[in-house]
Amino acid sequence: MAASPARANKPATQGLLSIGQVLARLRPEFPDLSPSKLRFLEERQLISPARTESGYRKFSPTDMDRLRFVLTMQRDHYLPLKVIRVYLDELDAGRQPDLPGTATGPIPTILPTERRLQRDELIREANATPQLLNDAVSASLIVPADLYGEPVLAVLKALVELQRTGIEPRHLRGFRASAERELGLIESALIPVSRRNDASSRAKASELSREIAGQLEIVRSSLIRSALSRLD
Length: 232
Hints:
Blueprint: H1 19-26, H2 35-43, E1 50-51, E2 57-58, H3 61-77, H4 81-92, H5 119-126, H6 130-138, H7 150-164, H8 173-194, H9 199-229
Antiparallel strand pairs: 1-2
């Protein structure tokens, strides 16, 4: 991964982007991004936009790169913000830390370019067959769409490898049910925050949901590793 932008003294605000301009550029990729989300990320010290004399936030290209990276790690890896912040702080200090939760795949650069693949492109890049994709959709492992992103490509590639060991999508139908049960746990945990229907609470609920998902993933991975150790 490229080095993270350091939090240096901000240049003059001329030519920098307003919150509205930031949202216009990033919402096509991150539809749930909002002014309250940007303020929340600033409160968590993940971004540090410049301020005009009137107090308005202004974002540099470096801020945009950092923001895009944070949002990508949340969306694609379900990492809590505190984990992402520690990672970025380490980069700012000139170190090259490992990012927890991404051991099974490459860490995106600070300038990720999310691709969108058509069905034929998805099948070709995953070295899959049309039937495997159809089976994955039938097993509710992949949601059918006109265009597919990198996370779906990663899933289809994994299914290709699993198929070589005799594990078919139909054998994984329980994964969807398990995911739905975990979603129920997360929704229950969010009830106290969700009751406060204001922008700040919605941003906090969104972050908390990712933190819970990340912790559940840690527990799940630990259980699998523990079970595998009994096979040795």
